[in-house]
Amino acid sequence: MGLDRFLSVPDDGGYKLVVTNRTQPEPFQRMVENLFAEQTVDVRETVDGTYPENTVLLLKDGDVIAESSLDALHDAILMVNSDLYTTGTRSLDETNVPDVIDALTDIRFSLRGYPESNTEKLLLILISRHIERRAYEVGDGVLRSSFQSLSRIKDERGTRRTYRKVSDTDVDVHVYGKPDWRPTDELDVTAHYGRTRDFEHSWFVVYRPPPDRPGERSAALLAIESGDAKWEGFWTYDRSVVDDIAEYIRSNL
């Protein structure tokens, strides 16, 4: 089964995103709804005097577990495109994930890339950068990332800058993909090459902090390409799940 086996981990239920006391124009609400239209996340709108205007709440089984401003969603994902990250226009230090997105863990997403959708795949790109930034800020541990084609590191200026910055720390960086490019000395990374399904059709960013930093959070994003520009995936901060994914990658790729 390869990495596909881990797609059974997410629980796929109980999340609701509620836009509260909206004063922003109607298109803001529609963008939030469109972003999650194909997902199991229910999007609603309400008025509630206990929260400020334009607050977005994330509920899990009826309980509020995170909140963000509607402006934060607008700036991070609703009004941007992937070029912002691949070209380096938005740097690693400038990558901020709204709390209501960050907390959507352990839920399986079915996401479409361009041309089917201009925004859905951004969820994966944003969380990928978020995990990379986490590794960079801790400055130690192990980061394992797949690119399908390793030449993307060379071709995408923003990706190359990100991995140069992370590899300049004490993080042990491993990159995976088809052998269409070999990293140069400017990147202190270990490259793993292959042409199996795990190499060519997976997207993962897995970070494990060093054992002597137990307070630091492990993180993993995993997605499997299920068709042209279509992905099934999830992200998690569950240490045991992260460890299982990381160990599978270390042993098999």
TrEMBL record:
Superkingdom, taxonomy of origin: Archaea
Name of this protein: Histidine kinase
Molecular function as annotated in GO: kinase activity
UniProt keyword list: Kinase, Transferase
